[in-house]
Protein backbone atom coordinates (compact mmCIF):
# COMPACT_ATOMS: atom_id res chain seq x y z
CA UNK A 1 0.00 0.00 0.00
CA UNK A 2 1.42 3.34 -1.04
CA UNK A 3 1.70 6.42 1.12
CA UNK A 4 1.27 10.02 0.09
CA UNK A 5 3.96 12.37 1.30
CA UNK A 6 2.93 15.72 2.65
CA UNK A 7 4.72 18.35 0.54
CA UNK A 8 6.86 20.60 2.75
CA UNK A 9 6.57 24.21 1.78
CA UNK A 10 9.36 26.71 2.41
CA UNK A 11 7.94 27.89 5.74
CA UNK A 12 6.33 24.61 6.85
CA UNK A 13 6.82 23.50 10.45
CA UNK A 14 9.38 20.65 10.69
CA UNK A 15 6.66 18.60 12.38
CA UNK A 16 4.26 19.24 9.52
CA UNK A 17 6.98 18.38 7.00
CA UNK A 18 7.30 14.81 8.32
CA UNK A 19 3.55 14.21 8.48
CA UNK A 20 2.40 11.40 6.20
CA UNK A 21 -1.00 10.35 4.91
CA UNK A 22 -2.18 6.79 4.29
CA UNK A 23 -4.19 5.82 1.22
CA UNK A 24 -7.35 6.01 3.34
CA UNK A 25 -6.60 9.62 4.28
CA UNK A 26 -5.41 8.87 7.83
CA UNK A 27 -2.49 11.03 8.89
CA UNK A 28 0.44 9.69 10.89
CA UNK A 29 3.99 10.46 11.98
CA UNK A 30 6.89 7.97 12.02
CA UNK A 31 8.31 7.73 15.52
CA UNK A 32 11.80 7.37 14.00
CA UNK A 33 11.39 10.63 12.07
CA UNK A 34 9.95 12.39 15.11
CA UNK A 35 12.93 11.27 17.21
CA UNK A 36 15.34 12.80 14.69
CA UNK A 37 13.43 16.09 14.59
CA UNK A 38 13.45 16.26 18.39
CA UNK A 39 17.22 15.74 18.49
CA UNK A 40 17.43 12.19 19.83
CA UNK A 41 20.55 10.39 18.57
CA UNK A 42 19.76 7.08 20.27
CA UNK A 43 16.44 5.31 19.64
CA UNK A 44 16.60 3.60 23.04
CA UNK A 45 16.52 7.01 24.75
CA UNK A 46 13.47 8.04 22.74
CA UNK A 47 11.58 4.87 23.64
CA UNK A 48 11.47 6.13 27.24
CA UNK A 49 9.35 9.09 26.09
CA UNK A 50 7.20 6.73 23.99
CA UNK A 51 6.53 4.47 26.96
CA UNK A 52 5.54 7.41 29.18
CA UNK A 53 3.28 8.68 26.40
CA UNK A 54 1.61 5.26 26.12
CA UNK A 55 0.95 5.27 29.86
CA UNK A 56 -0.55 8.77 29.63
CA UNK A 57 -2.69 7.64 26.69
CA UNK A 58 -4.01 4.67 28.64
CA UNK A 59 -4.63 6.90 31.66
CA UNK A 60 -6.77 9.22 29.54
CA UNK A 61 -9.02 6.33 28.57
CA UNK A 62 -7.81 6.19 24.95
CA UNK A 63 -6.90 2.98 23.16
CA UNK A 64 -3.09 2.84 23.00
CA UNK A 65 -3.12 0.72 19.83
CA UNK A 66 -5.28 3.34 18.11
CA UNK A 67 -2.60 5.99 18.54
CA UNK A 68 0.65 3.95 18.62
CA UNK A 69 0.67 1.48 15.73
CA UNK A 70 3.59 -0.98 15.78
CA UNK A 71 5.32 -1.18 12.41
CA UNK A 72 8.57 -2.69 11.23
CA UNK A 73 10.89 -0.94 8.81
CA UNK A 74 13.64 -2.47 6.65
CA UNK A 75 16.88 -0.49 6.91
CA UNK A 76 19.79 -0.83 4.44
CA UNK A 77 23.08 -1.62 6.16
CA UNK A 78 26.52 -0.65 4.89
CA UNK A 79 27.22 -4.23 3.86
CA UNK A 80 24.22 -4.20 1.56
CA UNK A 81 22.20 -6.40 3.91
CA UNK A 82 18.88 -5.28 5.40
CA UNK A 83 17.81 -5.23 9.03
CA UNK A 84 14.28 -5.01 10.43
CA UNK A 85 13.95 -2.14 12.91
CA UNK A 86 11.18 -1.12 15.26
CA UNK A 87 9.01 1.91 14.50
CA UNK A 88 5.56 3.30 15.29
CA UNK A 89 3.01 5.14 13.21
CA UNK A 90 1.81 7.84 15.59
CA UNK A 91 -1.43 9.79 15.62
CA UNK A 92 -1.38 13.53 16.25
CA UNK A 93 -2.50 12.86 19.81
CA UNK A 94 0.33 10.34 20.31
CA UNK A 95 2.86 12.91 19.11
CA UNK A 96 1.39 15.44 21.53
CA UNK A 97 1.83 13.01 24.43
CA UNK A 98 5.38 12.14 23.36
CA UNK A 99 6.59 15.74 23.18
CA UNK A 100 5.01 16.37 26.58
CA UNK A 101 7.21 13.56 27.93
CA UNK A 102 10.34 14.26 25.88
CA UNK A 103 13.60 15.76 27.18
CA UNK A 104 12.74 19.43 27.93
CA UNK A 105 16.41 20.43 27.64
CA UNK A 106 16.23 19.94 23.87
CA UNK A 107 15.21 23.34 22.37
CA UNK A 108 12.97 21.93 19.63
CA UNK A 109 10.93 19.95 22.15
CA UNK A 110 9.28 23.19 23.30
CA UNK A 111 8.42 23.98 19.68
CA UNK A 112 6.92 20.52 19.32
CA UNK A 113 4.85 20.95 22.46
CA UNK A 114 3.33 24.16 21.09
CA UNK A 115 2.75 22.74 17.61
CA UNK A 116 1.01 19.55 18.68
CA UNK A 117 -0.96 21.26 21.46
CA UNK A 118 -2.42 23.75 18.96
CA UNK A 119 -3.04 21.14 16.26
CA UNK A 120 -4.60 18.66 18.68
CA UNK A 121 -6.98 21.35 19.94
CA UNK A 122 -7.92 22.19 16.35
CA UNK A 123 -8.80 18.55 15.76
CA UNK A 124 -10.86 18.48 18.94
CA UNK A 125 -12.79 21.54 17.76
CA UNK A 126 -13.36 19.90 14.37
CA UNK A 127 -14.69 16.77 16.08
CA UNK A 128 -16.95 18.86 18.28
CA UNK A 129 -18.28 20.68 15.21
CA UNK A 130 -19.16 17.41 13.49
CA UNK A 131 -21.41 16.49 16.41
CA UNK A 132 -23.43 19.71 16.18
CA UNK A 133 -26.75 19.95 14.32
CA UNK A 134 -26.68 21.87 11.01
CA UNK A 135 -28.10 25.12 12.43
CA UNK A 136 -25.42 25.21 15.13
CA UNK A 137 -22.68 24.46 12.59
CA UNK A 138 -23.89 27.38 10.48
CA UNK A 139 -23.77 29.77 13.43
CA UNK A 140 -20.24 28.68 14.40
CA UNK A 141 -18.88 28.77 10.84
CA UNK A 142 -20.52 32.09 10.02
CA UNK A 143 -18.73 33.63 13.00
CA UNK A 144 -15.44 32.11 11.81
CA UNK A 145 -16.10 33.41 8.30
CA UNK A 146 -16.36 36.95 9.69
CA UNK A 147 -12.99 36.55 11.42
CA UNK A 148 -11.25 35.19 8.30
CA UNK A 149 -12.80 37.92 6.14
CA UNK A 150 -11.44 40.57 8.50
CA UNK A 151 -7.97 39.05 8.25
CA UNK A 152 -8.27 38.83 4.47
CA UNK A 153 -9.32 42.49 4.30
CA UNK A 154 -6.21 43.48 6.24
CA UNK A 155 -3.95 41.37 3.98
CA UNK A 156 -5.60 42.82 0.86
CA UNK A 157 -5.10 46.37 2.14
CA UNK A 158 -1.41 45.65 2.65
CA UNK A 159 -1.28 44.45 -0.94
CA UNK A 160 -2.81 47.72 -2.16
CA UNK A 161 -6.55 46.97 -2.25
CA UNK A 162 -7.72 50.09 -0.42
CA UNK A 163 -10.96 51.50 -1.85
CA UNK A 164 -14.31 49.80 -1.23
CA UNK A 165 -14.85 49.39 -4.98
CA UNK A 166 -11.46 47.72 -5.37
CA UNK A 167 -12.18 45.37 -2.49
CA UNK A 168 -15.51 44.37 -4.07
CA UNK A 169 -13.63 43.49 -7.26
CA UNK A 170 -11.04 41.59 -5.19
CA UNK A 171 -13.81 39.57 -3.50
CA UNK A 172 -15.44 38.87 -6.87
CA UNK A 173 -12.22 37.28 -8.11
CA UNK A 174 -12.24 34.85 -5.17
CA UNK A 175 -15.88 33.97 -5.78
CA UNK A 176 -15.30 33.52 -9.51
CA UNK A 177 -12.49 31.08 -8.84
CA UNK A 178 -14.51 29.07 -6.32
CA UNK A 179 -17.90 29.28 -8.05
CA UNK A 180 -16.78 28.54 -11.61
CA UNK A 181 -16.97 32.12 -12.90
CA UNK A 182 -19.92 33.41 -10.85
CA UNK A 183 -19.51 36.87 -9.33
CA UNK A 184 -21.07 37.87 -6.02
CA UNK A 185 -24.16 39.32 -7.77
CA UNK A 186 -24.56 36.08 -9.76
CA UNK A 187 -24.42 33.97 -6.59
CA UNK A 188 -26.93 36.37 -5.03
CA UNK A 189 -29.34 35.82 -7.93
CA UNK A 190 -28.65 32.06 -8.00
CA UNK A 191 -29.73 31.81 -4.36
CA UNK A 192 -32.86 33.87 -5.03
CA UNK A 193 -31.95 36.51 -2.46
CA UNK A 194 -33.34 40.00 -2.36
CA UNK A 195 -31.21 43.14 -2.46
CA UNK A 196 -30.61 43.44 1.30
CA UNK A 197 -29.80 39.80 2.03
CA UNK A 198 -26.15 38.80 2.45
CA UNK A 199 -24.83 35.79 0.53
CA UNK A 200 -22.88 34.45 3.51
CA UNK A 201 -25.99 34.54 5.72
CA UNK A 202 -27.70 32.08 3.38
CA UNK A 203 -24.99 29.44 3.15
CA UNK A 204 -25.12 25.97 4.68
CA UNK A 205 -22.22 24.69 6.78
CA UNK A 206 -20.47 22.97 3.86
CA UNK A 207 -20.58 26.07 1.66
CA UNK A 208 -19.35 28.24 4.53
CA UNK A 209 -16.46 25.83 5.13
CA UNK A 210 -15.50 26.07 1.44
CA UNK A 211 -15.39 29.85 1.68
CA UNK A 212 -13.48 29.86 4.96
CA UNK A 213 -10.80 27.73 3.31
CA UNK A 214 -10.69 30.10 0.33
CA UNK A 215 -10.34 33.17 2.56
CA UNK A 216 -7.78 31.60 4.91
CA UNK A 217 -5.54 30.35 2.10
CA UNK A 218 -5.72 33.65 0.19
CA UNK A 219 -4.84 35.57 3.33
CA UNK A 220 -1.87 33.25 3.97
CA UNK A 221 -0.62 33.46 0.37
CA UNK A 222 -0.85 37.26 0.22
CA UNK A 223 1.17 37.57 3.43
CA UNK A 224 3.62 34.75 2.77
CA UNK A 225 4.54 35.90 -0.75
CA UNK A 226 4.30 39.62 0.13
CA UNK A 227 2.09 40.21 -2.88
CA UNK A 228 1.62 43.85 -3.87
CA UNK A 229 -0.66 45.56 -6.37
CA UNK A 230 -4.41 45.26 -6.92
CA UNK A 231 -4.13 43.16 -10.07
CA UNK A 232 -1.75 40.66 -8.50
CA UNK A 233 -3.95 40.41 -5.39
CA UNK A 234 -7.00 39.77 -7.60
CA UNK A 235 -5.17 37.05 -9.54
CA UNK A 236 -4.05 35.45 -6.29
CA UNK A 237 -7.60 35.37 -4.90
CA UNK A 238 -8.93 33.88 -8.14
CA UNK A 239 -6.17 31.26 -8.24
CA UNK A 240 -6.81 30.14 -4.67
CA UNK A 241 -10.57 29.98 -5.26
CA UNK A 242 -10.02 27.93 -8.42
CA UNK A 243 -7.72 25.49 -6.63
CA UNK A 244 -10.20 25.04 -3.79
CA UNK A 245 -12.86 24.27 -6.42
CA UNK A 246 -10.51 21.81 -8.12
CA UNK A 247 -9.89 20.05 -4.80
CA UNK A 248 -13.64 19.75 -4.16
CA UNK A 249 -14.04 18.22 -7.61
CA UNK A 250 -11.18 15.75 -7.10
CA UNK A 251 -12.72 14.64 -3.80
CA UNK A 252 -16.08 14.07 -5.48
CA UNK A 253 -17.74 16.88 -3.55
CA UNK A 254 -20.60 19.14 -4.56
CA UNK A 255 -19.72 22.42 -6.22
CA UNK A 256 -20.60 25.33 -3.89
CA UNK A 257 -23.16 26.83 -6.30
CA UNK A 258 -25.00 23.49 -6.34
CA UNK A 259 -25.30 23.19 -2.57
CA UNK A 260 -28.78 23.87 -1.14
CA UNK A 261 -29.63 27.34 0.14
CA UNK A 262 -31.02 27.27 3.71
CA UNK A 263 -34.49 28.72 4.18
CA UNK A 264 -33.53 30.57 7.35
CA UNK A 265 -30.86 33.25 7.52
CA UNK A 266 -28.13 33.41 10.15
CA UNK A 267 -30.02 36.30 11.77
CA UNK A 268 -33.16 34.18 12.07
CA UNK A 269 -31.17 31.36 13.65
CA UNK A 270 -29.63 33.83 16.11
CA UNK A 271 -33.08 35.12 17.05
CA UNK A 272 -34.29 31.57 17.70
CA UNK A 273 -31.25 30.93 19.88
CA UNK A 274 -31.92 34.08 21.91
CA UNK A 275 -35.57 33.12 22.44
CA UNK A 276 -34.58 29.65 23.62
CA UNK A 277 -32.05 31.12 26.05
CA UNK A 278 -34.71 33.43 27.49
CA UNK A 279 -37.16 30.57 27.91
CA UNK A 280 -34.56 28.37 29.57
CA UNK A 281 -34.58 24.56 29.51
CA UNK A 282 -37.99 23.14 28.62
CA UNK A 283 -39.49 19.83 29.73
CA UNK A 284 -40.53 17.70 26.81
CA UNK A 285 -43.46 15.26 26.94
CA UNK A 286 -40.93 12.45 27.28
CA UNK A 287 -39.13 13.90 30.31
CA UNK A 288 -39.83 12.60 33.78
CA UNK A 289 -40.74 15.35 36.26
CA UNK A 290 -38.17 15.73 39.03
CA UNK A 291 -39.07 13.98 42.25
CA UNK A 292 -39.26 16.12 45.38
CA UNK A 293 -36.52 15.40 47.86
CA UNK A 294 -37.45 14.22 51.35
Describe the structure.
By secondary structure, the protein is α+β, with helices and mostly antiparallel strands. The protein has 2 domains: 3-130, no CATH class; 134-269, no CATH class. 57% of the residues lie in helices and 10% in strands. It is built from 12 helices and 5 strands. Strands 1-2-3-5-4 form a 5-stranded antiparallel β-sheet. It starts with a strand and ends in a 15-residue tail after the last helix. Mean pLDDT is 86; it is low at 1-11 and 282-294.
List keywords for this structure.
single chain, 294 residues, 5-stranded antiparallel sheet, 12 helices, 10% strand
Mean pLDDT: 86
Provide the β-strand percentage band: 5-15%
Strand order of the largest sheet: 1-2-3-5-4
Distance between the termini: 65 Å
What is the gyration radius calculated from CA atoms? 24 Å
Task: Give me a quick take on this structure.
With 294 residues, the chain is an alpha+beta fold. The protein is built from twelve helices and five strands. β4 (68-76) and β5 (82-90) form a beta hairpin.
